[in-house]
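Below is how a single chain appears once it has passed through the pipeline. First comes the sequence as given, then the structure the pipeline wrote out for it. We keep one example in the README because the format questions we get most often are answered faster by looking than by reading.
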Amino acid sequence: MFKKNSFKIKLTFSYVLLIAVSFVFVVFFLDRNLGENSLRDIRFSLVSQARLIEDQISPERLKQRDTAYLEALTARLSSKIDGRITIIDREGKVLAESRKSHEEISGMENHLYRPEIRDALTGLTGIDTRYSSTLKMDMLYVALPIKQNDDIAGVLRLALPLENVERTLSAVRKIILLGLFLALGVAFILGSLLASQTIKPINRMIHVSRKFSEGDFSRRIIQHSGDEIGELAATLNKMAQDIEDKIREIEVQNQKLAAIFNSMIEGVIVVDGAGRIMSINPTIEKMFGLLKKDVQGKAFLEAIRNNDIAEIIKSVLGHGRPLSTEITLVYPVHRIFEVNTTPIFGNEAVNGCLVVIHDITEMRRLETIRSDFVANVSHELKTPLTSIKGFVETLLEGALDDKKNNRNFLAIIQDHADRLDRLVDDLLSLSHLESKEIVLQRDDCNLYALVEKAIPGFASQSKKKNIEIKNELPEGLSLKVDRARIEQVFVNLIDNGIKFNKDKGFVRICGRVIDDKVHVSVEDSGIGIPQKDIPRIFERFYRVDKARSRELGGTGLGLSIVRHIVELHGGHVGVESTEGFGSKFWFTLPA
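Resulting structure:
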């Protein structure tokens, strides 16, 4: 029913304590006043009785010490009152006593120095309350002087035991104490009922508040009263609604931030003030081959062993200023990163750092390719243009009339113009392929027939070097491809195979179906390619032997065009070569 230290028990016992304290004060003052008022009433009554008895005592008999008369008088009057009657002469000797025999009176001690007697002998009304050693109880004494004219003949004393007063007061105290217990019981019951009615809504609030603390803000406190408890319930309900709205808003924002965080192409690392990783996004996981669960909470260097980034983070945490720099990662792969770091402030102090890593390896590679492309195009264009310009100037200066050499000069100019024409055609073709806007005209194409049709175009080239071109493709090998584009692939590869071949060599075209792909290779017995040049062989204008390539009329774009055409068809290209032992260029196409 009651819990230890519960508000209900405190409230109930507060009522009980209040009633108890109130009754204690009431009992204290009532007992005191009742006792005093009772004694005052008894004294007044006793004095009145003493005055009545005094009028019946003869002062002459008292002076004569007529004990027989006095004893008879006290015996007769004592039967009419409850008190003791004592007659005492001026010297304090007891002459008559209503409760004593004549023999006992003669043995009584002198009363001259009793307080009430002394007051009476001075003409006053003597009153005293004290314990009687004779009767063994508290007694109330009232003494009046018995006068004859202005002369005091003796003293009349009435004595009344106070045990009746005590019995009355005790009965009153019992009634009051019984009333106290009844009041306490009623107070306890009413207090419990009132406390229960007060505690019930509070308990409902506690129950719902616990649900709030567990994150369930859908509950509401039902309380229709208009008092302070009702206002508290309404306030808690409003607070729950506000918190629920704020949490929903924060969740939406967190979902947006998480979506942005996880979809960023930049790598993001969040570290705390001690340099421990708080979070990373999937891009960082891919960059460094990590898992978020494995690095969360670890020191940065413990998770990602890169001193450059660690030093940047340390600097930002130490100085509170953003930093941006470019670093090169050598291990585990060669990458170039742009690292931007920003401090995270909390309470005007740096308590974390945001690291944004942008992989600019491809951008730098493209910048290098672009730079090389511009340089190569400039060089490729300048060489024939310089030659054409030189021979034109020579002709204009008079060589035009030199019938022996002028046609030779014009032939050279024509060769360089053809070379420029091929270069421009290849550049336009490559630009068109790289634009991704080209639409392939796919139709059924027999690769064997396509190669057979292309081989006669190399008759003069192959005859000069006595090179045999072998078409070993399966005769029934057909694909749905852009016929003109694939023919250009074969032409470029066969042309390269002839140009960089040895005398009496061969060029062999083979093909086979592997799983769902057609694998085609063009193999030659030429000079081969050094291993260091193989990774870049399909780049624009890249030549292994630049002088020989230009001498043979190559533009340096043929293999790049091959790669783009194959990739547009959804395939891949590659090369296998050993320097001095020929090369095998291959490509795959979806079957």
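The first strand starts at residue 84 and ends at 89.

See the next section for the split statistics.
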